[in-house]
Design a protein that fits this description.
By secondary structure, the protein is an alpha/beta fold. It is built from ten helices and ten strands. The protein is globular, with a radius of gyration of 20 Å.
Length: 291
C-alpha cells in the first residue's frame, strides 16, 4: 500500500451554498492559473451545477457569464405541490442548453454528483446516468423544491448527507483532495424572504456533519460568505469571484508542501525497508515520531 504515497491525482469537491456558488468559479480560476490538474471532480447542489459544467470542459469564463445573469427565479419554476413550492424544470433546461443530453460517465473529468434519498436517508452518488437529472436531484432543497424521482428513488439535495462531497473523490481514485466550502463560518445572512429563512435553517442543520467530513481533506478552501444572499448575487459577482480566487491562492502553498512531504515519506520508507544495513535505533525512533 505504500505505493499510494505516489498517488498525487487531485480531486476537487465543490460544496452547496445556493447563489454563493459564484465563489467556486474563482476557486477554479485560481487552480487553473496555478496549473493544478484536476483528475476528479464532485459537487453537491450549486456545486453540482458548476462541477458538471466544468467536467464537460465548459470554461470558467463561460460559467462566469452564465452565473452573472442567474437568479433563483431563472433556475426555478413555481409549481405548488404537496412536496414543494418549486420544480427544478428551469434548471434542467439550463443544463440541457449548455451540455445537451449527456451522461455523467461521458464527462472529460470523471464526475460524481451527490443527492439524498428522502425516504431512506441514504447518500446517493451518481457517477453514471443523465447529468441533468442528477444535478436537479442534488439541488432540490427539501421543503422548497419538489423532489426528483430517479430509478424509483425520491431524491433531494445532497447537502443533507455530504454538503462538500469529498468521499466520492477518494472512491474514484484521488490521492489528494481539495474542498471548496462556501459555509466556512457559523454566521448566516440576514433573511429577507421566506426562502432565505428556510435556506438558513437548512444550512444550520447540515453544518455540523460537514465539519466532521472535512477533517481529512488535504487542502481546505473555506470561505466566510455570510454577507451574501442565498438567492441572488448577480450584482456582487466580482466580490464573490475574488473571495474564491484569493482564498484558493492563499491555500495553494499547502498543496505543494503536501507533494513534498509525500515524496519524502515514501523515500524514508524505502530506505528503512530496503537498505542493506541496519538503521540505528535512534534513527528508527526519529522516523516513527516524524512520520
Amino acid at each position: 500500500m505504500a505505493m499510494n504515497l505516489f498517488n498525487t491525482k487531485i480531486g476537487l469537491a465543490l460544496g452547496g451554498g445556493a447563489a454563493k456558488g459564484i465563489a467556486h468559479i474563482g476557486v477554479l480560476s485560481a487552480l487553473e492559473e496555478a496549473e493544478v490538474d484536476i483528475s476528479y471532480i464532485s459537487g453537491t447542489s450549486v456545486g453540482a451545477i458548476v462541477a458538471a459544467l466544468y467536467a464537460f470542459n465548459v470554461d470558467t469564463k463561460t460559467i462566469g457569464s452564465l452565473a452573472r445573469r442567474l437568479t433563483m427565479s431563472k433556475v426555478t419554476t413555481f409549481k405548488l405541490n404537496k412536496t414543494g413550492f418549486f420544480s427544478t424544470n428551469s434548471l434542467r433546461e439550463l443544463i440541457l442548453e449548455y451540455l445537451g443530453e449527456v451522461n455523467i460517465e461521458d464527462a472529460k473529468i470523471p464526475l460524481a454528483i451527490v443527492a439524498t434519498d428522502i425516504n431512506s436517508g441514504e447518500e446517493v452518488v451518481f457517477t453514471r446516468g443523465p447529468v441533468a437529472d442528477a444535478v436537479c436531484a442534488s439541488a432540490a432543497v427539501p421543503g422548497i423544491y419538489i423532489p426528483v424521482v430517479i430509478d424509483g428513488r425520491t431524491l433531494v439535495d445532497g447537502g443533507l448527507v455530504q454538503n462538500v462531497p469529498v468521499r466520492p473523490l477518494r472512491t474514484m481514485g484521488a490521492g489528494v483532495t481539495i474542498a471548496s466550502n462556501l459555509s466556512g463560518v457559523h454566521h448566516y445572512s440576514e433573511p429577507s424572504h421566506v426562502v432565505d429563512v428556510m435556506r438558513n435553517a437548512y444550512e444550520i442543520a447540515v453544518s455540523q456533519h460537514t465539519k466532521a467530513q472535512l477533517k481529512g481533506v488535504d487542502l481546505l478552501i473555506s470561505m466566510d460568505l455570510s454577507d451574501f444572499s442565498l438567492r441572488d448575487n448577480t450584482e456582487r459577482y466580482d466580490e464573490l469571484f475574488t473571495i474564491g480566487y484569493d482564498s484558493t491562492v492563499s491555500q495553494l502553498t499547502k498543496l505543494s508542501w503536501y507533494h513534498k512531504t509525500n515524496i519524502l515519506l515514501y523515500l524514508w520508507r524505502i530506505v528503512r525497508d530496503l537498505a542493506p544495513f541496519k538503521i540505528p535505533a535512534f534513527v528508527r525512533r526519529l522516523g516513527r515520531k516524524r512520520f
